[in-house]
Amino acid sequence: MELLEKEFVFRGLKYEQRKRTENTAIYEQYFIEDDGGLSFLSYEVFHIRKQKESFNVVTGIHFKAKELLPSNEAFGHYAYTCKDMKRAEIRFQELEDKYANVTEEYLSVEVEEGIDN
User: Fold this and answer.
1) What is the pLDDT of residues 46-72, one digit of tens each?
2) Which among 9, 14, 57, 72 has most CB atoms closer than 10 A?
3) Does residue 55 form part of some domain?
């Protein structure tokens, strides 16, 4: 299983993992300045979903087993943006409690804003 990286750049933002369990992660999100400096934006807290290894016989595409970042539609359901670490820790524990006994899930996700002030 391919695990989420501890640090990565995605869509022009840098992410650094601050806390993680098997089911849940907190990442700090930074804006990358023109001079290469970083400006803190927020914390992203989310349930770590997993993709099973599979093969599409029609297209011939092989999909590796890996952990997935949340989609935009996940925010407000199992992913949240928090402005401070205290709120991120609260969301982290809520997600830990919610998914403590879940081994596999296929959530149908609706679009909803997931920003905590």
Assistant:
1) 999 998 888 888 888 888 899 999 999
2) 14
3) yes
Under 8 Å between Cβ of 73 and 36? no
In a domain, 113, yes or no: no
Q: Could you tell me if residue 107 is inside a domain?
A: no
Residue 5, helix vs strand vs coil: coil
pTM of the entire predicted model: 0.81
Residue-wise pLDDT for 17-29, tens only, equals 999 999 999 999 9
Domain count for the chain: 1
| 76 vs 44: CA distance, rounded Å | 11
Domain containing 22 equals: 7-98
- Neighbouring residues of 70: CB distance < 8 A, sequence distance ≥ 6: 44, 46, 47, 49, 78, 79
CA distance 23 to 92: 10
